[in-house]
C-alpha cells in the first residue's frame, strides 16, 4: 500500500480584526498579472482564522494553516505570530 502524505496549506497575512472571541480576520494580499495588459494587480482575501488563546492583535502578521471546519466561516487556524504589533 502506498501511503499518501498531505502537505498542510499555510499562508501569511495581516490581522485586521480581533473583535470576535477566539477568531481573527486575516487579510491576505497577492499579486497577479493581468492577462491582456500584463500589469501586476493586487488582489486580497479576508479569512477568518481560529485563535484559541486570543493572543493576536490588530496589525500583527501571522501564519495560518488550513484545518477541518471549526464553524460556518472558520476553516483556518493561527499557527504562529510572525511579527507582533507591540
Describe what you observe in this structure.
The chain is an all-beta fold. The protein is built from no helices and five strands. It has strands spanning 10-20, 23-33, 40-50, 61-66, 74-83. It has a five-stranded mixed beta barrel with strand order 1-2-3-5-4. A hairpin with a 7-residue loop joins strand 4 (61-66) and strand 5. The mean pLDDT is 94.
Percentage of β-strand residues? over 45%
- Oligomerization state: single chain
- Helix and strand run: EEEEE
Q: Name the shape in a single word.
A: globular
The average pLDDT score comes to: 94
Going by helix content, strand content and strand pairing, the class is mainly beta
Q: How many helix segments?
A: 0
Radius of gyration: 15 Å
- Overall helicity: under 10%
Write the topology of this structure.
Layout: E1 10-20, E2 23-33, E3 40-50, E4 61-66, E5 74-83
Parallel strand pairs: 3-5
Antiparallel strand pairs: 1-2, 1-4, 2-3, 4-5
Subunit structure: Part of the 30S ribosomal subunit.
Organism: Marinicella pacifica
Function: One of the primary rRNA binding proteins, it binds specifically to the 5'-end of 16S ribosomal RNA.
Write a short abstract of this structure.
Keywords: Ribonucleoprotein, Ribosomal protein, RNA-binding, rRNA-binding. The protein contains no helices and 5 strands.
